[in-house]
Amino acid sequence: MSDKPVLLVVEDDAALQRQLRWAYDGYEVVCAGTRAAAIDAVRAHEPAVVTLDLGLPPDPDGTSEGFATLAEMLALKPDTKVIVASGHGARDSARHAIAQGAWDFYAKPIDIDALGLIVSRAFHVHALEAENRRLAARGDAGFGGLIYASPEMTRTVRTIERVAPADVSVMLLGASGTGKELLARGLHDMSSRSGGAFVAINCAAIPETLLESELFGHEKGAFTGAVRTVEGKIEQASGGTLFLDEIGDVPLALQVKLLRFLQERVIERLGGRKPIAVDTRIVCATHQDIDAMVAAGSFRDDLYYRLAEIVVRIPALGERSGDAGLLARHFVTRHAATMKSAVTGLAPDALAAIDAWGWPGNVRELENRIKRAVIMADGKTVTAADLDLDDSLTDALPLNLRTVREIADRKAIRHALSRSDGNIAGASRLLGVSRPTLYDLLKTYDLHG
Length: 449
Ligand SMILES: Nc1ncnc2c1ncn2[C@@H]1O[C@H](COP(=O)(O)OP(=O)(O)OP(=O)(O)O)[C@@H](O)[C@H]1O
Prior knowledge:
alpha/beta; Rossmann fold; Helicase, Ruva Protein, domain 3; five-stranded parallel sheet; flat; transcription; transcription regulation; DNA-binding
């Protein structure tokens, strides 16, 4: 196999396959003509970038097989950049494909140069993201200060990166403590508004009577106690992003005012007489079942559609394979440092208990438990007992055998290192390999002894 990066071309037209194979000599072009062949190629080559014709057999004139292929590829390897071909008059399917997680689209008939640019940009972004995840896995924060390495969270972050530059409203749906505010901040940082302010307001934490003036501001004398004119959060976020946390808690009367702002892009401060034009992007979040609220009439559907041009679901921590252990190590390091504790890591039984726990309170629960455990720990490591957890087990379907081996290798190496207090000779004895072999593995997996 060559050292060139693999570009997977999913295309059922043999002549086009040949043309694309010829066009890109910077890549090793692998072709597949069906969904099954495409999935086999993803498993075998793990291509960073894929071009996908939506019209595949048995539905060469439709898009159903193409969309099924897209979904299967992204489920298997969410960080893959899939570039979708949009045939004549098929802009709608291209847009739909982007909403399903495709990276970009190109129009048929193929313009080799234009497609070449999209492909090379996709490889470039893929490499940047991989570097980001590598840093995050080492404990240095990646996107928006988030720690993650799981495919589930990678998919979420990727969606947010995609929508950040488009000036659309975004609704984040996820349970409490899943990191919605961090993601909203990350979205702001990646948008063209990053030079403006990021202003956050928790609509559930402010009494109903004050929420309106918090959001819209007030003029001096608007009500008893209004001794000076105050800008509201919407105005403060002008040129930037306003994050409305717990949007489901906004009372109906205020929903009407918010809707008017979103329609007309002007506000009036309480007691004010002149409309003020404000250019603020809204990102909102809720842990509530907002669809049910709309159905029950407690949340206005017209406001919902304005706020939710794009909806992003944030996976619960229990659904992110491997992230809990990664976050736990990050929080141990952070809290041991701030508390000047002697604790340096997690014992193997603690890591196993963390992997097995369901984390109903998500990242916030994990952080609180680790903080407490760092205080409770007797020795240099946090043990399962310090965490005060029960156990049960979950497992995700692996990508391929290489991934299974890598996960197992990493797990075993981490456990051996923590059991031998980071001593390489000790860890290599526990693992039954030579020291040079262990050094090689540490380098390969970018782990630190
Ligand atoms: N992936 C992550 N990496 C590092 N820290 C995280 C991550 N996710 C969440 N946190 C931390 O967990 C805590 C909860 O996150 P955040 O406040 O963003 O959650 P939330 O979903 O907005 O919660 P709520 O809905 O209860 O307001 C914060 O201290 C945040 O810094």
